[in-house]
Design goal:
The structure is a homodimer.
Chain A: H1 2-34, H2 51-61, H3 74-77, H4 124-133, H5 141-148, H6 151-160, H7 170-181, H8 189-194, H9 203-215, E1 231-233, H10 241-244, H11 254-257, E2 265-267, H12 289-301, H13 307-318
Antiparallel strand pairs in A: 1-2
Helix pairs in contact in A: 2-6, 2-7, 4-7, 9-13, 12-13
Chain lengths: 338, 338
């Protein structure tokens, strides 16, 4: 009798393991249909990554002297101490102007279809270049003269752009910063999971992944970057500002296209490192990740998530928190003004 | 005959070497009378340096959430990319206010007799603590509540101040940041020279050192930090603003003491890393190091330095450019807001 019980238990155990194994196997397969692990770097045909460009680009990323009043660098709104974002609802730009929208993290951003919430910048190169030359009341040529006056930079630009006679240009500044930004990938437990390591996610994270898929979040937040691949109206089932408590109504891509179909349309944000980069949404109007998840399900998918489901999804999103490399976390030393 | 010439040449060579040797020996001895090599860290009896305090202090040094508007951290005005200063004439503080004076480098600053140009802060601990609590229109207690709401910090403060029941206080923030700043020493070729390595300085740097001593610069710029040890009137032989082109006349320590003897008196700045931290003087009114040297000799010592002497002194000052440690150059990752 004893043995029969033991045998039955063993059979049950084996059966249960198989079921559990194949369920988890199914989830991993499903995940690999919707997502992809991060590449080591985010290549671009138009801007091949070279060590000389990356070195210069990193310095320029930290370079406040690129700004008209000497107070702002890329790093100011994208410090690595806060995972490439600044924790503010809206950043403070040169001359103490408030930026129009929340600064998303620069980490993994080069993989998106475009830059900025409304996608008005083609890629990281254009974004970096125009961040300087676009908004400085016309006196931005001073910035190039300033760089030209710093011996250290003259040599570094020559090395990064050996074919150019006058390598210190806004275009090349954009290419160098872009090349640096293309190295800013942050491999996470989720990548390890996608590559086959079942233990890389906790049970709750796997349940969260399943909930994320089943709820429909993956309709927009998919691909290598878990977002960043398409544009979508914010507030399909209800005006977003009724849920986010946004103070201003932002018309989104309509601002650039003037097409009514683009009213309240924004780029779907990348969710990698989302747990490390509050506040959320284009205006940083929501501080809690759970609250952001709840609002998204409600106004994008017309679903009322339970507290438990929200906790599971938040747990899954935590598995998207990656590791910044030693190189990323090392401050570059800049040449002094002369 | 040939041998006599050879012998005479040898005698001359030996004599010359001895003279040259003893001259360089004298210079090194003289230098060791006026200066001292940097310590590894800048100890304080009141604030013993512990790894837990340094770790927390470094994070707080980068922490913009310590500022009332979330835009300013210590690091904003003291980025290590620019050798612990910000390259501006005057920094931009919270709420876009312009700081009253130039931000000196934080490197080696803990070794000074006091902090700020007018010495109104006793030490780095007081400076760090009051930078937050002094100037925030009374609503600075929010900052403590903000820190308390971030789990990561609660644990780090407990570890750094194990005896305190409520360790998150402005006083402890100052102690932690101070402990971190006390690690920011930058050993330079000049330190190697003071310790006996004659080759650590180039010939021009040694000539510059001699000129620096003979001109009288060492009357104020002496000790371990080549400055930072006393207060002195700026403009002994002529009003400083006639030479610096300062836009405002700053009364210096008179502002705090209301004593006429303190009119235009400032703390003698540390010259370590001076070549890396333009612009110069309390108001950052002079951009070129050579020009700053010329003005100082003129209005402090009533001496007109030749171009050659200025070049030598600038060369010597270059030997004060030290090395930031790997630890100093590593960005700390901060816990996200919750």
């Amino acid at each position: 009798m004893k043995y029969v019980t033991l045998f039955a238990s063993l059979v049950l155990l084996v059966l249960f393991s198989t079921v559990s194994y194949s369920a988890s196997d199914t989830l991993m397969k499903q995940a690999n249909r919707f997502f992809k692990p991060l590449p080591r770097v985010m290549q671009s045909k138009e801007n091949p990554i070279t060590p000389a460009k990356v070195k210069l680009g990193k310095m320029l990323f930290y370079e406040t002297r690129l700004s008209v009043d000497g107070t702002v660098s890329c790093e100011k709104c994208h410090p690595f101490s806060l995972y490439g974002a600044d924790g503010l609802q809206k950043s403070v730009a040169v001359l103490c102007r408030i930026a129009p929208r929340n600064a998303p993290t620069v980490l993994n951003a080069a993989g998106e279809i475009s830059e900025h919430w409304i996608g008005n910048m083609k890629n990281v190169e254009e974004q970096a270049s125009k961040a300087m030359s676009n908004r400085l009341d016309g006196n931005y040529t001073d910035v190039l003269a300033r760089l030209n006056s710093i011996q250290g930079y003259v040599a570094l630009f020559k090395k990064a752009f050996p074919r150019d006679k006058q390598p210190i240009t806004f275009h090349n500044i954009g290419l160098a910063i872009g090349a640096f930004e293309r190295t800013l990938t942050t491999p996470s437990p989720f990548d390890a999971y996608l590559k086959g390591n079942k233990r890389a996610l906790t049970r709750q994270q796997k349940e969260g992944l399943k909930t994320f898929i089943d709820t429909g979040c993956i309709q927009c937040h998919n691909g290598t970057y878990v977002g960043g691949g398409m544009y979508m109206k914010f507030g399909i089932f209800a005006p977003y500002w009724k849920y986010t408590m946004s103070k201003l109504i932002d018309k989104g891509r309509f601002e650039i296209t003037k097409n009514k179909a683009d009213l309240y349309v924004f780029k779907v944000p990348v969710l990698r490192n989302v747990a490390m980069t509050p506040p959320y949404f284009h205006d940083g109007s929501v501080g809690s990740l759970g609250e952001a998840v709840r609002i998204m399900a409600k106004i994008q998918l017309n679903k009322d998530l339970s507290k438990d489901d929200i906790a599971k999804i938040v747990s899954f999103l935590g598995s998207l928190t990656g590791k910044m490399s030693q190189a990323t976390l090392r401050v570059p030393v800049l040449p002094p003004s002369e």
